[in-house]
Amino acid sequence: MPHDLSSLIELSTLETLVSTQGVDALLAALDTALAQTPADARVLMEAGPTVGPRTLRVLRKAVALDADFLRAHPEALFQCLYNRLRWYDAPDAAPYFATQGSAPWSDPEAHLYQLATWWRRQREAAGGGAPWVESLLPLRGALEGVDELLWHDAHVLCAAFDPSGARLATGSWSDGDNVRVWDVATARSLQVMAGHEGEVRDVAWSPDGKRLASGSRAHDARLWDVETGAQLHAFTGQEGQVTSVAFSPDGRLLAVANLGWCVHLYDVASGQKVRTLKGHQQSVLSVHFHPSGRWLASGASDDTVRVWDVATGAQVARLDSKMSVRTLAFSPDGEWLAWADLDDVALVETRDWKRVRGLKGNSRYSQLHWLGTSRLGLLGFDRLEVLEVKEGASVWSRPYTSDGRERGAAFSPDLKHFALTAADGGVLLSALDAPVPPTLLSEQHRVKHLWGQPEGGVAIAKRLDAAVAIDARGQVRALPPGSDESGLQPWRFSPDGTLAAYPVVRFHEEPRRRAIQLFDVGRLSPGKELSAPTLEGRDASKRMTMEPPMAFSPDGQLVAGVLEVGVVRVWRVADGGLLHTLRGPPQLVTMVEFTPDGVHVISGYGEASRLMLHDARTGTLVLDTQALMKPAPAYGAATLVPRIAVGRASGELELFDLPAGSRRVLQVSREPVIAARLSGDGTRVAACALDEVVRLYDAGTGRLLYEVPHAALPFSVAMEGDLLVTCSDDQTTRFFDLATGAPRAVLQGNAEPEEVMRREYWEALGEGPVAFHRRRSPAPMAHFQDTLEETVILRDGLVVARGRTLPDFLYVLKLHDAPGGA
Prior knowledge:
8 helices
């Protein structure tokens, strides 16, 4: 049955189409309805907003943005549409964007957020539906306009349009499949080339558009058949990374430049080397043929441009630059050679190779392209720009948010489109005459670290320039001026989440002094500073780690931390008084914790493979033993009884009963024991060894209960109730029956086993969209469409996350459980 405007703004219709026919059928239905709906058509929804063709256009873009995710998770359609539309034109969305000119919320027909709200009310009135994930901040992705994002899974360095402007080639840092060809009209991937083992630094099209050349960090260039994706030739053994490739105008020669100071010319048909051009005294960074094919220009880090006779290999001209020449090009009429210089664009007349003048723009440029014979397209550090050569005036620009990473740019030969690459794996494809959509501010303020107490009330997101606090209601607040002096040092939170602590260095004092700053989380303000005079011979100024360990006691009354080498201090939180100075070996302290009962302070020394326990009340040394401490402590403590377990490089697992001082040694493996975990009551102990086996023992008798082999190295384990959970370095989380060791479930993605067992909600992070779970359940509760690098789940299912698909992008999400969910 055909669908029209009235039916396609009904959530039930959209969900039925996606669940029964798939995402592509939904997109096709929206396309058909758009083609048949008059521009002035309007439908007044009962108890809802007025909708029109614009609604269908935005709906289609929203579905297209999440199409790949929806193919795997069609049940998430409401989630995807709500999270896109809710932030599209709501008045409260405006503060999250930097706008130029009009914005969606200023349009008189703004109503998409109302449609999303109406759908949500319908859903909740019907009982709430399945669990879903709400975004409490706008997501990246324009819902109107012609901007498209083409995705690789790693940093994209280069892009090039084919001679017709119909296709775009891109090259990335991906481990494989790092050369791709896209259809400009549809933004669909047409071809993927596999072969390069290092990141691709440049791509170039043959004049007939049938072949593509690429050069990579792995000292090679390759030639591809674009139609089939087959590799035609591999030009390996280059003297250094290949920085630039270019076809001659007749398509017979390929020039390959590398960091080894050379430019090689190859016969395209045979793949044989024709000649090598030598003369540069440093790395060659760019090459370009003259339209006649007679000359080749090359730019290098020796601050020169050199022009070569292609037929003989002789150097025709040497042109001095003020800086390394990373980009150069001849004009299509052959009259000019241009390159990006220190503070301008250099222009040289080719009739006598004389530099005549420079063009001043609004930036220092890293790439340039001739757009016809009278304009230059340029890539600056924060904008794309087009300069008129004759007047030197800027006639077009498109600002973007600089992330400080290398980018690439391309302009289509028909002067209709441009492409801009980025470190997050995205390639922006758009039209030169398209309006600039609002810029999401969160794209400018990338998050480098997240800290928070799981199921606590506040998380701290640290940017390079500042920090913000996100509370359990999802409100984002900047820390008051002067309240954050931690830099990128870690924060630790008290168990009740009311206090935090972070290390500081008082550089203005002589000698400079280290301290631990307490922070009132509720007031977002610093509290007491914890410090102590440095012990003689334990100065930490040159030897301290970047992340000095700290810990709150389970009751939140004490803080243990490190100010100097080989010393752990314990302070009272109430008055900041120093309680104990616990001395260890004169080496870096890599671990500080309290036992779960708060009776002991545990300190670890990675270089010495040494673990020490002190009585938290008296400061008395209780235990000093060998333990594997790197890359993570092989240590575990029972919650209900004073028993600990430590693993050793010898393959031994040692159990200590602290009150009695007794110990038991188990020979687990001939390989090092890298992780140990006791059950809460201390009756069972699990050990992970480098032989890829997890073993469970009776902690009282030392009897081996069973072994669980793994397909990859398990590095973390936990047990509770009737479950044992492990996490392995193949990004897999596994569930086993605690009584028998029989497998129960296998999940793709890394999850912290302790959180799986104890948290109300936990997450599995991997290469794909994140999965959120309920406590101890291997069945995903809900998925979110982006890949996340780091998360903190606060109370009531509030998730603060750092993006991976969009590196360091700040997400604030809310988990909505199904009615009656656990």
